[in-house]
Structures are given as C-alpha cells and as structure tokens.
Write a structure and sequence with these properties.
Distance between the termini: 30 Å
Largest sheet: 4 strands, antiparallel
Strand order of the largest sheet: 4-5-1-6
CATH class: Alpha Beta
Strand content: 15-25%
Shape: globular
Number of helices: 3
Order of helices and strands: EEEHEEHEH
C-alpha cells in the first residue's frame, strides 16, 4: 500500500530551536467542533462572541500554564476557535544562546506543541488534537502585525474559515 508523502511544512534550513516568533495553527481530531462556539452579529456586528467549551477552557488553562512555567516562551496572542486554535508564540534561547536544559519545550517548536497537546489531552482525558500542526516563521514586524490581526479577526470570519465545518 502506497501512502501519499506528507508535504514538509518546515522552513528549509531554519533552526527551530533558535530565538524566534511563530504563528501556529493546531486542528482538533477530525476537525470536530469541540473547543468553542462562535456567534457573530448579536446586535454588535463587529464583536463576535467566542464561548469556550470545557475542552476550550482546558486549552486556555494550558496556554496560561505554559506562559507561567517557561520564562523563555510566551504565547502572546491566541484564539480558540471551534475546531482549531491559532497561537502567536515568541521563543527565546537562554542567555548563552542555547536552550536551558530545564525547559524542554524550548528545544524545538515541535516539542512545545507536543507538550501543549499532551497536557490538554491529559486534563481532558481525551485525544483532542489531530496529528501535526501548521506553522509560519514570523520574519519581520509587518508579518507579526498581520498574524496578530488574523488572530483578532478570525472569529468574525468563522463562517468563511477554511476549517469551518
């Protein structure tokens, strides 16, 4: 049986353990709408309401825990959509330029996302996430602002979102 080869989503020749900013999207298992509900319009057309489910609250708590536990990792912006989550992650290496050994989540972006998923799954007692994730390396301030704005406006565009089911 020939399985199709997965497209490599990593930026070629980029060291993901170095200091950087990343825009990350993680989808739920089978893109199930289990994290939140989004309602747009209820009298204020520019103010969508995102109501977190219990699973969404767990994801938000894990984000808070990561920000408090790992001083060299900051999830500076995020949105928890019904079946995916967007994160803007700033990761710094230690003062010596190498990741501190006590913070395994800083070794690579993949390890950080794996840690996030594992903690969510443990607290939910369920397998919430699909395999893998999508990331984009933020290369300059314009890219950073575009990612920030995308996260801000994502709930407003939920019905048009590529992950809408």
């Amino acid at each position: 049986m020939n399985n199709p080869k997965r497209k490599d989503t990593r930026l070629k020749n980029f060291d993901y353990s170095q200091t950087g900013v990343y825009f990350v999207t993680i989808c739920t298992h089978n893109r199930q709408s289990i994290l939140s509900s989004v309602s747009v319009g209820g009298g204020l057309p520019d103010a969508p309401l995102v109501e977190l489910t219990e699973y969404g609250k767990i994801a938000e708590a894990v984000i808070t825990d990561i920000n408090q536990t790992y001083p060299n990792i900051q999830i500076t912006k995020y949105v928890i959509m019904p079946n995916h989550i967007h994160l803007l992650i700033e990761a710094e290496n230690g003062a010596s330029g190498t990741p501190p050994p006590t913070t395994p989540a800083n070794n690579t972006l993949s390890l950080l996302i794996s840690t996030f998923k594992r903690f969510c799954n443990k607290h939910a007692n369920a397998d919430l996430w699909q395999r893998g994730f999508y990331d984009r390396v933020i290369r300059d301030s314009n890219d950073y602002l575009a990612a920030w704005q995308y996260i801000d406006t994502n709930p407003l565009k939920w019905n048009l979102d590529e992950y809408f089911k």
